[in-house]
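Intended use. Records like the one below are meant for learning the mapping from a protein sequence to its folded structure. Do not use them to infer anything beyond what is encoded.
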Amino acid sequence: MYGFSVQISGGFEDAVQRVTEALKEQGFGIISDIDVRATMKEKLGIESQPYRILGACNPSVAHRALQADPDIGLLLPCNVVVRQASENTVTVSFMDPEAVLSLVNHNEIEELGNEVRQRLEKVRDALK
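Structure written out for the chain above:
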């Protein structure tokens, strides 16, 4: 498995705001925000449900990871997907940093992956 998720009730924009605030509570900021729906509309003329990819970063953990392996930036930031599942339901999916960072085969990086996963699980639990 490369991720975990939660479904929440309410509107899409409200969900994005709730996710952003819950991430902030765990020390994450949003360093990228990709509006997939808008991109598909602009580039391909395709209408779709709201879908955003938020690039979440905890600066202190990212710094520790970069100190342990300068190339770790290839696997950063932690992606969080917010997507409209139905009229009143939004799915929030989190990249599993343990699964992704285990690719590096470096004990310190794997420990950081575990720490970040625990923080992201707290974000998921706060959204329930």
